[in-house]
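Researcher: Structure prediction, please.
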Amino acid sequence: MIARGIYKIKDKYFIDFPDPYLKSNSGENRPCYYCYTASDTGLFWMIPLSWRVEKYKRVMEQRREMNKPCDIVHVARLDNGKESAFLIQDMFPVTDEYILGEYLLGNSFFRVTSDALAKTIARKAKTIMTLIRKGIRLQEKQPNVLEIERKLLENKQARYTPPSER
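Model: Predicted structure follows.
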């Protein structure tokens, strides 16, 4: 997996981590997810993408009117010319085993090529992660991503065999 890539997640993830507030799959086809790598754990964090841009523009406008920051969602035009909403507040951790594959546009792997967009998403994702780690709830129906992260890290540790024991 590469950072800035867009991927599909296996249904198995949502079976193994049955949090009712995760943005779940639709037959391993939708939504697709932007890959953000958290340097502190080595896990991949997947940010759901939505094509329902107008809905999230309204959310952002409401937050601005209330003088609240808009780090929870980011709307941007992607390389395919369409706008998409990055649902940063809904990001969740995964490991390679839960990645179904790359999201293809035509026959090409779809990824974010804009450095500016990638930096903006990374900055907002770091802000959201800091708030989540402080125990701040960003929304009423927020998945317990820290519990999922803990379980993924435990599984990762359990599978690791030190070189001296191989």
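Model: The chain has a mean pLDDT of 84.
Researcher: Thanks, that helps.
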